[in-house]
Design a protein that fits this description.
By secondary structure, the chain is α+β, with helices and mostly antiparallel strands. About 55% of the residues lie in helices and about 20% in strands. Strand 3 and strand 4 form a beta hairpin. Helix 1 crosses helix 2 and helix 3 packs antiparallel against helix 4.
C-alpha cells in the first residue's frame, strides 16, 4: 500500500514538473500530456527552423568568403600566405601572374588547389626594394577578385 502511494506521489510530482516545463495550465493528466506533446512539436519545428538557418548561413559564408591573404616582408623578399575554403579555376595562375607583374619571382612555393586553396610562397627579386608588403597584398587581392569574378557562372 505504501509503495503504491509512493509511486502515485512520484508520478504526480513528475506530472507537475512536466506541467511547469511546458507552461501548461491544465489540471488533469490527459490535458497535461497533450500540452506536453504540443510543446514537443513546437520545439521540433524550432529546431528544424534553426537548422535551416544555420545551413543557409554556412552556405552564404562559404560562397562569399574571399581568401585570407597575409604578406610578410622578409630580408630579401616576401612571405605570402593565401588560404581559402574554396578553390577557383585559374586562381593560382592569376596570383602567379600578379607576382610576375610586380617583378616578384617565386623562390619557393607550396600550393593546394583541390577543394580548398592554400598557397605559401616566398618571392623576391631586384625590384623588391621598391615595394612593400601592402603593395604585394593589394596586387594579390586584385588578382583573386578578378579570378573569382571570372569563374562565377552568373
Amino acid at each position: 500500500m505504501v509503495s503504491r502511494e509512493h509511486k502515485r506521489a512520484a508520478f504526480h510530482e513528475k506530472l507537475q514538473l512536466l506541467r511547469s516545463i511546458t507552461h501548461s495550465h491544465a489540471l488533469n493528466k490527459t490535458s497535461i500530456i497533450m500540452d506536453a506533446s504540443k510543446y514537443i512539436e513546437e520545439l521540433k519545428k524550432k529546431v528544424d527552423k534553426l537548422n535551416r538557418e544555420i545551413t543557409c548561413t554556412q552556405e552564404r559564408v562559404n560562397d562569399s568568403t574571399l581568401p585570407m591573404v597575409t604578406v610578410e616582408a622578409l630580408q630579401k623578399g616576401f612571405l605570402i600566405n593565401i588560404s581559402s575554403g574554396k578553390s577557383y579555376p585559374g586562381l593560382l595562375v592569376s596570383i602567379l601572374e600578379a607576382f610576375e607583374k610586380l617583378g616578384l619571382s617565386v623562390v619557393q612555393a607550396r600550393a593546394t588547389c583541390t577543394d580548398t586553396f592554400h598557397l605559401e610562397a616566398v618571392g623576391g627579386d631586384i625590384q623588391v626594394a621598391r615595394m612593400d608588403a601592402q603593395m604585394v597584398k593589394q596586387a594579390v587581392l586584385q588578382a583573386i577578385k578578378t579570378s573569382t569574378k571570372n569563374s562565377d557562372p552568373e
